[in-house]
Amino acid sequence: AQSVTQPDIHITVSEGASLELRCNYSYGATPYLFWYVQSPGQGLQLLLKYFSGDTLVQGIKGFEAEFKRSQSSFNLRKPSVHWSDAAEYFCAVGASGTYKYIFGTGTRLKVLA
Amino acid sequence: EAGVAQSPRYKIIEKRQSVAFWCNPISGHATLYWYQQILGQGPKLLIQFQNNGVVDDSQLPKDRFSAERLKGVDSTLKIQPAKLEDSAVYLCASRYGTGVNSPLHFGNGTRLTVT
After folding, report:
1. Across the interface, do B103 and A44 touch by the CB < 8 Å criterion?
2. pLDDT of residue A98
3. Cβ–Cβ under 8 Å, residues A92 and A33
4. What pLDDT sits at residue A62?
């Protein structure tokens, strides 16, 4: 069965610093991978997705993520964090041939001014 | 395009009462989902519709939860009777295609507090 692990519950970074949020997945075949962001009181917004091809994918708001099959990881990165990036970030995996997404438990990002 | 609409935004009820949530997906989106998001956790799928048919309700507590999607557009999720552990945000999402590579679009959710 597919599963997603986000090892970091909370992360605090200073504005302007770089960011990496970790995501590990478990799935037997090539997964579809997603990162979503949730601001307080809002629904989830898609940041980026990986289906196949280039393992480094670019998303909105300056985010990127790299798919590493050997490590079963899909970590999210941003070179310089802005205060408006403070939110909760969810990694999700989708299995081909199904309709299902499985979400991780999320990482809450705090940005210090 | 208009996004996924949900109402109400907030609801406070006492345990054993009933409650209903409404969702209007993006126009043309055939697939609709209801997720439950408990504080500090990721969204958990409750039920998935394809048009007006149920595709997956394996994680829906059917003794108290019910959902319908009449005419394959709007959907309602009902809880009767509510328990304290039902306190959560209920998210509705929709997608255009049927494949998992078609991204989900989420509404802002309904925050339910059961006292």
Report:
1. no
2. 66
3. yes
4. 96
